Amino acid sequence: MLRPVARSWKQNIRQFSFRPISSTSRSHVKIVEVGPRDGLQNEKSIIPTEVKVELIDKLGTTGLKVIESGSFVSPKWVPQMAGTADVLLQIKRNPGVRYPVLVPNVKGLDTLVDLLERHPPPAGSSEPPLTDEIAVFIAASESFSKANLNCSIGESIDRLVPVVRLARFKGLRVRGYVSTVITCPYEGPIAPEKVRDVAKALHQLGCYEISLGDTVGTGTPITVENMLNAVTSVVPVEKLAAHMHDTYGMGVVNSLIAVKSGIRTVDSSVAGLGGCPYSPGATGNVATEDIVHALHGAGYTTGVDLEGLAEIGGWISSQLGRPNSSRVGQALLAKKTREAAAKAKEAQAGEETIQARL
Ligand SMILES: CC(C)(COP(=O)([O-])OP(=O)([O-])OC[C@H]1O[C@@H](n2cnc3c(N)ncnc32)[C@H](O)[C@@H]1OP(=O)([O-])[O-])[C@@H](O)C(=O)NCCC(=O)NCCSC(=O)C[C@@](C)(O)CC(=O)[O-]
Fold first, then answer.
1. Ligand 1, atom 48: nearest CA belongs to which residue?
2. What does the record give as the reaction this protein catalyses (predicted)?
3. For this structure, is 151 an active site residue?
């Protein structure tokens, strides 16, 4: 009879260890901050452009290298993103940071290209263009595709062919998203093979990176691992990114599972902002503060200033009048408040001692 092999706790820990392997490039995880787009697109009341711009400018000082800054989608479908052109015109562009925007079709790309051509960097300057990257998006579920893009999966892929071709011709990098990689809000569980096939289509279209979105946030380590096994059989792991929503509180663990599988790009949203307009009940992405804390704790580098990020998470949550959904952000801000109170108390005690001696 086969007996289960007894494993020591050290062996078990090693099995689940997220410790990065020795080479430095493998120990770095790129964070794609999607708060200003995915995070804000679902907010009910229209957020002033100044707030969006200030959010992106603040995020641009934290060491983040990619900040998704809006979308050129139909304003009838997602009114919150209607002012993306103004946002791109007003942000203070940090030369080391990319500011991609979402584009669903040729109309959106034409609008963006026209904006870029009307506002080129000053001649002879080293200033970057308003943006040099777009993101296109499709779904692994037919019903979600219909709800989000008003077409079938096949039609959405056909629609992207001229978008990707024109974008690349214009010198824009193209990132691709696959939504509903675990569950569809209308159809339920999605077979990993469906995700594999649409991810492969985006790869073949020429997307330099494909971000796998657990739109509903129902993924667990096992379902995420199964999905990744299917996708990595056709797309190189270094071309993939994890985009985990945190509706069921699994965002950090699922992102870590992706990192453990070899993925080195993780999408996240400051303060856990967000929710998808076409995924009822889904909450925001994994909070950037939470995943950065988890990655740093596991020995990975992100280049992101966690405390600065927590400040921004507190600031944008109060601007929107919503609770801060980042547990790490809340903890860091509470710690800062405690430390400031202790310092003030100490200063007051010192002052009283001096007064008593006088
Ligand atoms: C794709 C369409 C446009 C099709 O929508 P449609 O209604 O089939 O399009 P249409 O071609 O019939 O056009 C309808 C109207 O929209 C206009 N229009 C058409 N295109 C544009 C455009 N680009 N920019 C501005 N206007 C546009 C067009 O001109 C027309 O205006 P009208 O003549 O009625 O006045 C629509 O379904 C759409 O905009 N969908 C986007 C929905 C969206 O933004 N969802 C959220 C982003 S995806 C996401 O969050 C998931 C992700 C990426 O984060 C990953 C994850 O977590 O899963």
1. 137
2. (3S)-3-hydroxy-3-methylglutaryl-CoA = acetoacetate + acetyl-CoA
3. no
The total domain count for the chain is 1
Is 160 part of any domain?
yes
Residue 58 CA to residue 92 CA, distance in Å, equals 9
Q: In terms of residue numbers, what domain contains 349?
A: 28-357
Q: Could you give the ipTM of this predicted complex?
A: 0.98
Looking at the CA of residue 180, tell me the nearest atom of ligand 1.
58
Torsion of CA 111, 113, 115, 121, to 10 degrees: 170
Global confidence as pTM: 0.92
- For residue 150 and ligand 1, the question of a CB distance below 6 A is answered with yes
Nearest CA to ligand 1 atom 50: 276
DSSP state of 37: I
What tens digit of pLDDT does each residue of 295-319 get?
A: 999 999 999 999 999 999 999 999 9
Specify the residue for token string 């993939």. 240
Residue at 300 is within a domain: yes
Report which secondary-structure segment, H or E, holds 211: strand 209-214
What are 190-213's pLDDT values in tens digits? 999 999 999 999 999 999 999 999
Alpha-helix runs per DSSP H in the chain:
9-16, 49-59, 84-90, 106-118, 142-149, 153-169, 192-205, 221-232, 251-260, 288-297, 306-320, 327-357
- Does the residue 326 lie in any domain? yes
Cα 215 to averaged position of ligand 1 atoms, centre (Å): 18
Token duo for residue 151? 């077409």
